[in-house]
Amino acid sequence: MKSIINKFKVTNGEKFSLKDYDTADTVNLKKEETEAELKELIKKTAALQSALYADNRYALLILFQAMDAGGKDSAIDHTLSGLNPQGCEVYSFKQPSTEELDHDFLWRHYKALPEFGRIGVHNRSHYENVLITKVHPELLLKEKLPGINSVKDVKKKFWEHRYESIRHFEKHLAENGTIIIKFFLHVSKDEQKERFLERIDDKEKNWKFSAADIYERGFWNDYMNAYEEAIKQTATEKCPWYVIPADKKWVTRTAISHIILDTLKELNLKYPVLPKEEKEKLEEAKKLLINS
Q1: Phi, psi for 194 (deg, rounded to 5)
Q2: What InterPro entries does the record point to (predicted)?
């Protein structure tokens, strides 16, 4: 699976192009085999989560980005379902509040970072600030940024500075023990259409659909350009992107699970070894319990 993972991994955006990534790629996986495989991957990940918590030297931050109906919610549900909820927190970022707009764009994301020993999952992330704001720059006016009084003030240099802020933010986290995995679930426009229709036709899924989804779909090419540029500008060795084919959910979930498990394995996590005095205290406690 290592070669498959590397196929999705982007560590240098210099030659990156979304056109090189097939949204329907199965990477030779077979659907009938992935259900059992996924269960085993989740089991192994849960064991390493326990070691992550005990080791208490690293935090794992997993970011999910996708177009509407790209499968973020179901991917989080299926790939992290076996984890201990005490050591894992999921944040779904919506439109920023008034309080959040009174701070810099990274503030609310910094507040939601996982502690050492824990796993943090961000459903949408700080990348919305170079995605939706890139497609709809009028949203930037709500941030009350110095020198940005109209959309005409948002020039190329502004976006260069914002990508730079993100790179520095992630570099700082990585150098201080937060391991970052960035997933872009790459769904096709045709598959998005099918999923929207399913949400409309299925009463139990009506709540997932919004008329605004159709409006945003009209900006599909703009969003693809924004995603491509964001990945180009922020893919690094320490904080790579993974462009995951998302047309077939069973492929998406299996690939994500492999990547999370492999990332945890690379940390070489160890349970703390008690010093001699503490071991002696444990033995004494054991004797007391047996004789009580």
Answers
A1: -60, -40
A2: P-loop_NTPase, Polyphosphate_phosphotransfera, PPK2-rel_1, PPK2-related
3-state secondary structure of 85: helix
What CATH number belongs to 2-291? 3.40.50.300
Query: Can you say whether the dihedral through the CA atoms of 109, 223, 242, 240 is positive or negative?
Result: negative
- Assigned token pair, 28: 């030779």
Q: In the numeric block, which tokens belong to residue 152?
A: 């005409």
Q: What are phi and psi of 126, to 5 degrees?
A: -60, -15
- Closest to 246 in 3D by CA, of 12, 39, 74: 74
For the record, the structure tokens of 131 come out as 């995605």
Q: Which token pair is 108?
A: 């609310």
Strand 88-92 and strand 119-123: pairing?
parallel
Structure confidence by residue, pLDDT tens digits, 188-246:
999 999 999 999 998 888 888 888 889 999 999 999 999 999 999 999 999 999 999 99
Query: Percent helix, strand and coil across the chain, each rounded to 5?
Result: 60, 10, 30
Give burial (CB, 10 Å; 0-12/13-18/19+) of 172.
Answer: exposed
The confidence score (pLDDT) of residue 1 equals: 66
pLDDT tens for each residue of 249-263: 999 999 999 999 999
- Quickly tell me which residue has 């502690």 as its tokens: 115
Residues 6+ apart with CB under 8 A from 109: 93, 122, 125, 126
Identify the DSSP state of 274. P
* Under 8 Å between Cβ of 241 and 10: yes
Rounded Cα distance between 71 and 122, Å, is 14
How far is 156 from 112, CA to CA, in rounded Å? Answer: 29
pLDDT < 70: residue spans in the chain: 1-2
